[in-house]
Amino acid sequence: MKAEDMIDRIDEIGTELHFNHFPAGWAWAVDSPFQWTKQVASHLGGVRNPLIVKWPAKLKATGETRTQFLHVIEIAPTILAAANVPEPRSVNGTAQTPIQGKSFLSVLDDAKAPEVRTSQYFEMFVNRGMYDKGWWAASLAFEPWDPVRGEFDPTKAKWELYNLDEDFTQSKDIAAENPEKLEELKALWWAEASKNKALPLDWRGAERFSAEGTGKPNLAGGRDNFTYKGVLAGLPESSAPDLKNKSFSVTAKVKVEENANGMIFTQGGNTGGWAFYLKDGKLKAAHNYIDVAVYSFESDAALPAGEHEVKMDFAYEGGKEMGKNGTITLSIDGQPAGSGAIEQTTPFKYSLSENQDVGMDTGTALSTDYKAPFDFQGELEEVVVDLKK
Predict the structure, then answer these.
(1) Those residues with Cβ within 8 angstroms of residue 34's Cβ, 6 or more apart along the chain or in another chain
(2) Residue ranges of the N-sulphoglucosamine sulphohydrolase C-terminal domain (predicted)?
(3) Are 312 and 293 a contacting pair, CB within 8 Å?
């Protein structure tokens, strides 16, 4: 999203209405003096982190720095060595893969100690880096804020080369002056990636957040019908029925008084998802499209007091394409009660932290039409979700 697209909602930024994150420009700025940001494993701005160690009982050095190259895989071996605990080879009868890291207690004891890690490969979203004895080869494939990536040939991607002993900020690319060294590190990267099972490379962006699209395990996978009795709180999205890119319906048996309020069913929150609820007696449905637009619909008339079967039916019209449009239809006791069009739906993931709830909303409100937790007023006998693939 561009800055001009946010101007109309600038006063909302930083409030509970949105999933707040500082802009990419600031992410880069706070990584100074290094290039790039989180997710860019090709450059130190994406992988370098500080480490502070305090152990007064054993370490004589205080207020000193160390410049030896280390990797996060060294942390566990170092703690085990400090505690004089051997690395476990088996846990509850299951053989363990040996830890690849090495203890760096020697570096803590002596600022001039040799590096315990002289070579290390990096990869994330095909942004690749290779460190070897002071040299660093880097290949940037995609900017992390670019979700649309298309086809990519990693064998033809550009590589950069830096000598960290002379240029620790990676400010001068010396690939042209050292072609043989660059080819050596490129070949080493492919060998390390193969050995560490990083291949085949996956350069997709937002698509990788789709559990169905990537085949990630899901406790709800392989099922089309889900019945929930009474109130349900906090079912993770990854364990809930996947409502994305398909038609589905939510049917509930309720008993209410006049002008009842409360959440019947919700999945997601203020960054994307669905809500099916009562507000001042009227049946309502809403879809939040990645916090860019909220499509809301309500029944033509209020729900009378008594026992009813209410339904939200979504007919997806995008075929096999992702994130397309569809039509919402509300019904009360089998009779149509209202409908409307949704121009675009959330294609990959509703939230990094929200859940599915029945009878309440334990996360952020999906729309400003209600305030969480928005407990259901009345009796909620059951809620049935049907997926239509």
Answers:
(1) 43, 44, 45, 48, 169, 170
(2) 47-178
(3) no
Q: What angle do CA 243, 244, 250 make, to 5 degrees?
A: 25
Nearest to 130 by CA among 96, 84, 97, 175: 175
- As a whole number of angstroms, the longest Cα–Cα distance in the chain is 81
Domain 3-69+118-204 - what CATH class?
A: alpha beta
Exposure letters 253-269 (e unless 16+ CB within 10 A, then b): ebebeeebbbbbbbbbb
**Residue 249 backbone dihedrals phi, psi, to 5 degrees:** -140, 150
The pair of structure tokens assigned to 346 is 């959330």
Q: What are phi and psi of 224, to 5 degrees?
A: -115, -10
User: Where are the domains positioned within the chain?
Assistant: 3-69+118-204, 225-388
Alpha helix positions (H), 30-178: 44-47, 75-82, 105-109
Q: Domain 225-388: which topology?
A: Jelly Rolls (2.60.120)
pTM tops 0.85, yes or no: no
Coil vs helix vs strand at 12:
helix
Q: For residue range 358-377, list pLDDT tens digits in order.
A: 999 999 999 999 999 999 99
Q: What is the pLDDT of residues 11-60, one digit of tens each?
A: 877 777 777 777 788 888 999 999 999 999 999 999 999 999 999 999 88
C-alpha–C-alpha distance, residues 215 and 238, integer Å:
12
Helices (H), the chain: 3-6, 24-29, 44-47, 75-82, 105-109, 179-195, 211-214
Alpha carbons 320 and 337: distance in angstroms, whole number: 29
- Cβ burial, residue 312 (10 Å; 0-12/13-18/19+): buried
Return the residue matching tokens 């649309």: 148
Q: How far lies 9's CA from each of 5, 109, 124, 300, in Å?
A: 9, 54, 33, 30
CA-CA distance, 359 to 269, in Å (whole number)?
15
Q: Is 118 helix (H, G, I), strand (E, B) or coil?
A: coil
